[in-house]
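Problem: given the chain below (135 residues), write out its structure.
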Amino acid sequence: MEKKLRTGELTRAAGVTRATLRYYERIGLLPEPGRTASGYRQYPNDAVGRLRFVSRAQELGFTLAEIVELLELRVADVRACGAVQKHATAKLAAVEAKIADLTQIAGSLTALIAQCESLETTDECPILDTLGGDY
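Solution.
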């Protein structure tokens, strides 16, 4: 018989907080666990792997809603790998677009900083003028 994990054991093994664990249960990322006769939650050992999967997917920029979809595909048949690839390709495109936006923002800030003379009063500051216009 497989040893079940209590909440504290699971959170330590997976590196999440109790609040995160409860939230994941509420939104369906982690199934509701069974309970002992005295009411303690008992999680299967594979819950650690599932929580680590969620954490790694978040590190790659996937939203929780996207992670739910990935978890559903994980239990699908072998042909589902193409669907996972589509999710990863879409996420990569979004990341690349975000990088392009951030690069543009960095360029704009660099140009504004170069225009700024620290001895000017704030009513003549090019950074504030750009942000506020006539404000």
